[in-house]
Each structure stands twice: as structure tokens, then as C-alpha cells.
Amino acid sequence: MVAVFKSAAHVCFLHLPKYQFAAASVSGGTTRKRITFSTGYPLSQDRSTSRLQVRQASLRGMHVDVEAKMDAEKLKKGIAEFYDQSSEIWEDIWGDHMHHGFYDPSSTVSLSDHRSAQIRMIEEALKFALVSEEPLKKPKSIVDVGCGIGGSSRYLASKYGAECTGITLSPVQAKRAQALAAAQGLENKVSFEVADALNQPFPDGKFDLVWSLESGEHMPDKTKFVNELARVAAPGATIIIVTWCHRDLSSSEQSLNPEEKKLLDKICDAYYLPAWCSTDDYVKLLQSLSLQDIKAADWSEYVAPFWPAVISSALSWKGITSLILSGWKTIRGAMAMPLMVEGYKKGLIKFAIIACRKPE
Q1: Disulfide check for 8: which of 172, 194, 218, 307 has CB 3.0–4.6 Å away?
Q2: Measuring CA to CA, which residue among 259, 197, 261, 258 is closest to residue 230?
Q3: For 266-283, how does the pLDDT look when each residue is reduced to its tens digit (9 = 90+)?
Q4: How many Å apart are CA 190 and CA 55, to the nearest integer?
Q5: Domains of the chain (ranges plus CATH)?
């Protein structure tokens, strides 16, 4: 999803277990237990350490866990409000597909080309993931995770004759998506609901295509996000993740450099994003779940014309008046758009596609 208008990291997964015990180690002839609480800091404890100290450390860990949950709820609220305010503007100027387009890097394009490029993005993602169009193999049940106003959901349902369910944090988006589905005669094929991608309201193994187009960047816990995508996927299902990432780190790097972190922090503040991760991080998460046929690609060069075009549309008379009427959250997002261009030009931001298959 395009974070300028669409719903829903230094490598940091907001993944805070209450306790995590490591094996006892021997140091200087004294057995020492190494206990890591949800603060992430180890507590070295001799056998003589009092239970009171352990309890105090436990309470500190619980306090951090509560704070983390509060931060996650604040993030969800911010994302929902951001898209509640901005989705109408996006649809008015760009139509119902709230994501990047896929372009010929050497082409010059107009607004109509951008809309065609957004459809091409969907088709190229399906082609990359080798989603079959054969009658007996094509998807019959699809989930669109972070559906915006349902552009991808309706397109996929029409293309495959499938049933598609879209989820978003924005009540405004869900309502508008359903209205557009009804207008297109798809109300019996497509449905939308307000739901959290990290806690999806679906049984295990429900969908044979799990689709996430530009929503992963909003997820505060990438591990839980990927686990949920895999959980709702049926045996043999295809999972497609198209998302913003930061560059992969080299073997000699522990993190991004301070200037890179500073730039991403500014973008996070404007678009309600948690910490970023790399494409390689996603691949490792998928590998940890024993998913198959995992592959990834950097499509940054194919989306290069997109952000300059969005900036241009925002600076039009219609764009400026719409921004003023929409409220501060949308205005702040528009002001941060040049930072996305800067991030792409510096090779810091990567437009990644990752696809895999759940074992039969």
C-alpha cells in the first residue's frame, strides 16, 4: 500500500516475549543463569540472588510489554486515521488502486499511464509468483491484507472468478471498498472488513492466494505479520508480499548508518510506519517457517516514476485544495514525499517483492 494514502526498520521486530530463558553457562567456576526479560537486557543472576530481585526484573519486563502494546495501539489508531482522512483525495486524483505502478524505466508517462502502471504492477506480481490461470489451478479464495479501498481485491476477484476478502484498519476504506464492489456488481464475490493483519479473523488454511501489496511497511511486528500470512494460507497456497524495505546490510554491517536512520525516521513519523527491515530479513523469516519456492527481487527501478508523479499531482491546484481540506495528517504525508524520492535515489529504500508457497 502506498503509505501516502493507503492502509493498512532498522532491523527491529516488535516481538517482546514475557520471559526468555537461555541455557545456564559456567563463568569463573560459578554457575550463572542468564535470564532475558522483555526489556531485551540480560540479567546475570548467581544462585544467591534473591527471588525479590527476579520479581522486580519481571515487573520491569511486564511494564515494558504494556508500553509496547500501548505503542502498537497508538500506531494502529494513527494508521486508521491517516487513511480515513486521505483515501478520498487519492481516489479522486489517482483512482481506486492505492499503490505504486510498474513502469518501463526509460519511459515518460502521463497520469493515464500511471493508472495503467498500477494494473501492470498487479499483473507483474502475479507473474513473478507464477500464479496459475489454468481453470483447475487458479486461485478460488483470496485475502487482500491491507486492502485500501479494494482496488486489488476487485481486480483479482474479477480476473480469477474468485472470492476475495480484504482487510484494512480504516473503517472509511472498508465502507468505500464495499460500495465500489457493489457498483461493479461484485458484492457477492468481494467483501471487506476492519481487521488487524497481525491478528486476522480467519481460520487456519483458508486462502489459496495471500496477497499483501504495500501493507507490510505498516506492520510493527514483521515476525507476527509473516506468521499470520502463512497461517491463513492453505496448503499449496501462494503468498505474495510487495513492500517497502531498507537496503540489505553487508556482512560487515550491524545496522544502517546514522544518516540513513535519520531519513527513515522522518518518513516513519509522516506515514505512521514502525521500524523498517530489509528484503533479506523477510526471506529469512519465510525460511524459518519452512515455506517453499521463496524468491525475492528489487523492483525499485520499475517504480521510479511513481513518487515524482505523486508529488506533481499534489502540487496541482486540485491537489493543493484537497490537501488543505483533508487535514494535517495528510498534509504532513505530502510534505514527506520528497524524502521517499531521496531514499530511492540514495539506494536506501528498496521496493521489494517476495513470493513463496506453503507446502502441500
Answers
A1: 218
A2: 197
A3: 999 988 899 999 999 999
A4: 51
A5: 19-74 (no CATH), 77-357 (3.40.50.150)
